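Now for our target.
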Amino acid sequence: MQTEAPPTTPAADPQATCPGCGRPVDRGQPFCLECGRRIGHDYKRPPNWRIPVALIALIVVAAGVAAGFGITALTGNDEGPKSVTVTTGPNGEPLADPGETPTAAAPTPAPAQPQPTTPQPTPPAEEEPSGPAAWPEGKEAYTVVLLTTKSKDTADETAKKAVEGGLSAGVLKSDGFKRFEPGLYVVFAGQYENVDAASDKAQQVSDKNPGAYARFVEPK
């Protein structure tokens, strides 16, 4: 007598890790909550659609009916050429039809006088940033981290150079924000709505700021 072997339990799917910092992440997670690096994209294939054959046939029939009405309207208004009798005077010059009433020529309108124009005020020029900015109070957003250091002077100098280079840069103290190591000064540049925009900006400034990366900033 043969006995059936119990079903084999499939092995548990190992937990994924972030390729940037090595921290464990959930499968299907779009980016790492620790370092902000992108992990994967969810792709949805657009649904397949087809135009019904009956709809195409209906459009063709409607176009044929419209063309038939147009041809009927054109042929119904064709009454053929009309004969015109021209009365001439003793010297052969054409005379006006006595049944017609002479029409007076319309008076020529006077040229319009130019209206004086009021000069529009010139909008004030935008002020250039004068120094490193502070992180907006209570603001949650993605940013570009240019430098992380324990030296406040180094952070201020780096932010100042970034501002002179045209970036909206500033310095924040890590103690007031989540998922930052305490005791650090973080040089940031701008606020962005999503990680893609922040990552693109980090790529653009990487030539002058090696190691720049996108990071989500959340106050405590």
In short: The CA atoms of residues 86 and 208 lie 90 Å apart. The helical segments are 53-76, 152-164, 195-204. Residues 141-217 form a domain with the Alpha-Beta Plaits fold (CATH 3.30.70.1070).
